[in-house]
Specification:
2 copies of one chain form a homodimer. The first copy, chain A, is of the alpha+beta class and 412 residues long. Helices cover 34% and strands 24% of the residues of chain A. Chain A has 12 helices and 20 strands. Chain A has an 8-stranded antiparallel sheet with strand order 14-13-10-6-5-18-19-20, covered by helices on one side. In chain A, strands 2-1-3-4 form a 4-stranded parallel sheet, with helices on both faces. The longest helix of chain A has 22 residues. The first copy, chain A, starts with a helix and ends with a strand. The relative contact order of chain A is 0.11.
Chain lengths: 412, 412
């Protein structure tokens, strides 16, 4: 077996044993792309070896989606592929372990009319709503991990030859996902245990607010009563521990939707619908964005924020040390999972129900009244850097250092 | 555009315009395999250009099936992937145009316990029963066509280098499917019109029986009253003309299940569950196989014939001139569609309802009483050659030449 094959197998084992934590006689559903079928075969084999009763794979093809968005009439974009929705929603309802493999092409829809892309996306999200809701509640074990493709690799490593850029991207993924550690599973277990410990400590603190400060940022985010810090491992309704994201470096909770005050400047580019916004400054009053100043594509950002009422409020605040393995590579990945785990960030749009005590059981108005935010968008904006300080503000108004110059200051 | 790309596009156009005959605002469902995604993209684009409202593609992967058959317990092989069945059955029920792309690997399951393979196959066929039944009635437009893969090409051209064997197989497919004619669509329309004319003439004859004779064969097949010769084009319930098979060279009908008498020797190998049976002789009495003599793998043949009651009777007799474009290549394709269209053949097992007047509306016992055969198998055995003579026996017992030395003798 080649070294590359061995690393692929270890990555597949991680996805099955840590990401999904497949249980004996459980069904496994894989949403695959054609990026790297060899990896899908290895995940499938690993899942059967872990005792899966049935591994079913739904392959999606960017090229087919692209043809649809290019050729279908506006009305026909609303047609739902019923079996496609049934595959996801049925797996979620049955409690399968669901592996979502991504192989992004950041420029797939470049040059397509935005309304066509938006209509396609809306139809898709609408059809998958039951699964997405169940996923938001962690009803089942699920995990997201990535495989390279030529288009993505070319975007990340534009100066490399096509063949070697794919290899470089695999190398980056293997390194960031700890595949190259001597015992990757043990390394992941240690890593997510550390994240869990930090979450427990932060949740126990119940800060009234976080204060972010650097030369370009002065932002105070109120945190609602009963907020929960999450990160690393999740627990399904049946009590199975799994790792929803590979990689994952963040711990995160929800800010109070009406308690953001001040301004913040992004430190890494944001990719929205294929447009890269280099940096921008957001000003908040009573939780709402009242001013946007972008270096480019200001209209794209303004359109995003105008998507719905919740799009101008925050749904997540995440802390990531500046020295993390993704940031150390000093690389833009043009992918939310890789880029958001590179730096502390805030997310415009929806909050996760599980980041608020009893949030899963609340009605939407109750969730909002408690400080949670609802929106159809959830867009991460990176604000962390090695110059960022973060203070925790206690209930009595006193403060303590949470991060200093981008690194953890709070001992756990 | 390269010459190869242009030929791929012409093949895709044939599949959409002639094979499926896609209608404006119709949905198109494609069952694809890993073989040649580029061809699937071209079919998808051609289908949108023909006015399809939605093209939905279900990709299957031999490697995933193989892992399942290798690893799943016997009981777990009965688990049905519900959305997979829903995809096919739903498309059939809605009346989509259904393209079944095949990219066979003749040795996929070599070395796997036959019970595992059989259980897997049974579960699959059971789950797809509604679609298969509707297909048998031509409720919707459907077409089968093939794309090469490395394993299949290696088997067909064992003496060629791997890369060139795939090219050789494409060349063979393009040539056999008339893709290289100056106007492939017109060539197909002429071809299937000729087949249709022959079918009409043969159906009008209403022969009481066909008599096959050569040095190794002396077989009389009774034909039931109201038998219908089919071939080339089919007509869906909505009246849309389509070509179910690409390639297609045969005209066929059903023999009476209880009226085969004599013996017949195959002229081309039969591939059953990955085993190649070079030649064999079957002896019939009152329609039933009473004796089997095979050059090899006699037990595989005996197992096949013992599958169920109908497996020892015939369900199809097809006439193909010995000079047809597939036979002229003097090549075994290890695939039913390509090999059956190379020579006149008989099929053990199920008869097609549409080859008997009012057959579609009959109950199973009525269909059998009228001379039709029911079985879970349908296995073609090639019996034609340039030495074969075929006579038609009229109701009054007089005879006329239908084929002489493998070529049509009957003028139409």
């Amino acid at each position: 077996m080649s070294d590359f094959d061995a690393r692929l197998d270890r990555y597949a084992e991680l996805a099955v044993r840590v990401g999904l934590n497949v249980q004996p006689q459980q069904r496994v559903f894989i949403r695959a792309t054609r990026g790297e079928p060899e990896f899908v075969y290895r995940v499938t084999r690993a899942a059967y070896r872990a005792g899966a009763s049935l591994v079913h794979v739904l392959w999606e093809e960017d090229a087919i989606e692209l043809l649809r968005v290019q050729h279908a009439s506006r009305e026909n974009l609303d047609l739902v592929v019923d079996w496609f929705a049934h595959a996801f929603n049925g797996a979620a309802e049955r409690g399968d372990a669901i592996l979502l493999l991504h192989s992004p092409d950041p420029e797939l829809f470049a040059g397509i009319a935005p309304e066509q892309v938006a209509a396609h996306r809306r139809a898709r999200l609408g059809a998958l709503r039951p699964m997405l809701d169940a996923q938001g509640r962690n009803d089942f074990q699920w995990s997201v991990c990535h495989v390279p493709n030529a288009a993505w690799a070319r975007r990340v490593f534009p100066d490399s030859a096509p063949a070697s850029s794919v290899t470089e991207l695999w190398d980056a993924i293997f390194s960031i996902c700890r595949v190259d550690e001597s015992d990757p599973i043990a390394a992941w277990q240690t890593h997510i245990a550390q994240l869990a410990k930090r979450c427990q400590a932060l949740t126990a603190k119940q800060y009234r607010a976080l204060h972010f400060s650097s030369a370009q940022t002065d932002l105070t985010l109120g945190l609602p009563r009963g907020h929960i810090w999450a990160g690393g491992a999740s627990t399904s309704r049946k009590g199975i521990v799994f790792a929803a994201n590979m990689p994952t470096e963040e711990v995160f909770t929800l800010p109070h939707r009406e308690q953001a005050e001040g301004y913040v400047t992004t430190t890494r580019p944001l990719s929205v619908s294929g447009v890269l916004i280099q940096n921008f400054t957001l000003t908040f009053e009573n939780g709402r964005i009242t001013r946007v100043r972008a270096s480019n594509a200001q209209n794209v950002l303004e359109t995003l924020i105008a998507t719905d009422k919740g799009a101008a409020h925050l749904g997540e605040v995440a802390l990531v040390p500046a020295s993390n393995p993704i940031a150390r590579r000093n690389q833009i990945f043009y992918d939310a999972l890789y880029d958001e785990n590179a730096a502390s960030h805030i997310a415009l749009g929806a909050a996760y129900r599980f980041t608020l005590e009893d949030g899963a059981a609340m009605t939407a108005p109750d969730f909002c009244a408690a400080g949670g935010n609802e929106s159809t968008i959830h867009e991460d904006a990176m604000i962390g850097s090695s110059e960022m300080n973060v203070d925790g503000v206690r209930a009595d108004g006193t403060r303590e250092a949470v991060m200093r110059e981008g690194e953890w200051a709070l001992e756990v």
